[in-house]
Design a protein that fits this description.
single chain, 245 residues, 12 helices
Length: 245
């Protein structure tokens, strides 16, 4: 099956994996995918022997499906991650202009409402606070305040359409900031599914590796195929941890 077909076939199974079981991938996912493709091809030559250690043909048949599922989940996550990077670039370009809009509105309202203590207090309350989320809320609050009290603004030649601009900008920047922070539901979900798909693939790979190491512990030529080479290359010496990798 194609990766997308594997993914669709296994999606509900992956979603059912509890969050508590899943850990962040401990090696790059693209490296893990290639390692497991290699492992699958390697273990096919030992299918009969592996069966004596509990690795059934059904498990071997399911292994490439799990690999394909993880590959597709990784692609989906990468697409969302790139979108987040693009959002960060967009934020860097737009946010200085938006802060300038907020500051200009505050400056204008402080002058326009200078003779009304109650309105000045509302402006001061809006101005209080800092940070991106606060700035975004300020834009909406200033729009509401200005629309409720337009006459003093008109008296100082303020363009009231800027209040609409402020409200719309607040909405747009809130969405953009969520994308920057990876807070969109789709981004979070694709990351969770990618991690679960990796866990699901690794779970079976670990069983196959453990069985292969057990069976071929005195046959170096076959044993080596059941070692995760990425980890081996990134460790200076063998350890008990390698056996459980």
């Amino acid at each position: 099956m194609a990766n997308i077909e594997d993914y669709n076939a296994k999606l509900e199974t992956i979603k059912a994996i509890s969050d508590e079981e899943v850990k962040q991938p401990n090696i790059p996912v693209d490296a893990a995918l290639q390692e497991n493709e290699n492992l699958y091809q390697w273990c096919l030559k030992n299918a009969a022997r592996l069966a004596t250690a509990g690795i059934t043909q059904e498990m071997l048949d399911d292994f490439p499906v799990r690999i394909g599922t993880c590959c597709e989940a990784e692609s989906i996550w990468n697409k969302d991650f790139r979108s987040q990077k693009e959002a960060q670039k967009q934020w860097s370009e737009q946010s200085p202009l938006v802060y300038e809009l907020r500051d200009r509105l505050l400056h204008t309202m402080c002058f326009a409402y200078r003779k009304d203590v109650a309105l000045l207090k509302r402006v001061a309350a809006i101005a209080d606070g800092n940070g991106h989320a606060d700035m975004i809320q300020d834009l909406n609050d200033l729009s509401v305040l200005g629309k409720e009290n337009p006459d003093p603004l008109t008296a100082v030649s303020f363009d009231l359409t800027e209040l609409d601009t402020s409200a719309a900008t607040s909405d747009d920047m809130a969405t953009l900031l969520a994308e920057v922070n990876g807070d969109r539901a789709g981004q979070n979900e694709s990351k969770v599914i990618r991690d679960k798909a990796y866990h699901y693939m690794k779970e079976l790979a670990d069983e196959i590796c453990a069985a292969g190491k057990f069976l071929f512990w005195k046959n170096e030529n076959r044993y080596k195929g059941y070692i995760i080479q990425y980890r081996k290359k990134h460790r200076k010496s063998k350890s008990v941890a390698e056996y459980n990798a």
